[in-house]
Design a protein that fits this description.
The chain is of the alpha/beta class. It is built from 15 helices and 5 strands. The two termini are 29 Å apart.
Length: 276
């Protein structure tokens, strides 16, 4: 079992991506079809597949029957935030769920199913909740835009985050700067929502009680933001303990021995450190 987990932690540094821009331009040229077709998808896929096979002939054989991702990535549906591409990782590295404005809603059956499978079955070690600057969903909430349902219903979740942090956000007069900050606050709130879920708490208690086997409490939750303007993915400088302490008595579903209670409450809840 230990060997299995060690293998999961290895990264194939020999993985080399072809230039995404050059590949796309080449595929578009070879597709030779107008925009009303999707032929470029298949042409580009074949070019990509051949490129991968040239570098690693056994890659798809290994991918065929098993996935062992270390990460669950919860991000925005924005087309500029292509998860594996911005992380520089090959297929199979991340289990991914994306929606408008990277929300974690307890009534969202799709998101809750993904989290349950990733944490309970795949046993991912880390959950990355990633927002991005220039997010259309955040911008719509800040500017009180009113799209038709169901999008308006979805954006109301962001406005609820806005309401919770209204005192801070109302001090920012520039709407673009305010939206920038709301992106970060929204990521923190969604990280808190992850902590509230039964499966995350259950798995963290399980790994805590078997810490010698797992090495650290899992899954760790990492609030991050991506900047499409620079291509940089960064951790938020946030102490999750500060946000979770007052919520503990309300949302904790599982307990451990009294002397261990404080440690299990916070262990692994920071960006990438044991005790935030």
């Amino acid at each position: 079992m230990a060997a299995f987990r060690a293998a999961r932690g290895q990264v194939r540094i020999s993985w080399l991506r072809p230039s995404a821009r050059n590949l796309h331009m080449s595929c578009r040229a070879r597709a030779k079809e107008s925009d009303h077709t999707i032929d470029e998808l298949f042409v580009c896929n074949e070019a990509w597949r051949k490129g991968v096979m040239e570098k690693d002939p056994q890659f798809f054989s290994r991918q065929a029957n098993l996935q062992q991702p270390r990460y669950l990535w919860i991000g925005c549906s924005d087309s500029r935030v292509a998860t594996e591409t911005i992380c520089g990782l090959p297929p199979g590295s991340l289990f991914v769920h994306r929606n408008v404005a990277n929300l974690v809603c307890g009534v969202d059956v799709s998101a809750m199913s993904v989290i349950q499978y990733a944490v309970g079955v795949l046993q991912v070690q880390h959950i990355v909740i990633c927002g991005h600057y220039d997010c259309g969903g955040i911008r719509a909430a800040v500017r009180n835009e009113d799209p038709p349902a169901p999008l308006s219903n979805w954006l109301r979740n962001i406005r609820d985050v806005y309401r919770l942090h209204r005192d801070e956000l109302s001090q920012i007069k520039d709407k673009d700067v305010r939206a920038h900050r709301l992106v970060e606050i929204n990521v923190i709130e969604q990280a808190i929502n992850l902590y509230k879920t039964r499966i995350v708490q259950q798995r963290r208690v399980e790994t805590y009680k078997n810490i010698e086997e797992y090495g650290f409490v899992q899954p760790k939750i990492h609030p991050c933001v991506y900047d499409p303007g620079t291509g940089r993915l960064g951790r938020l400088d946030v102490e999750m303990q500060d946000h979770l302490h007052e919520l503990k008595d309300i949302y904790n579903l599982y307990t451990v021995d009294a002397e261990d209670d404080e440690e299990i409450g916070w262990d692994g809840m920071g960006p990438s450190v044991v005790l935030p």
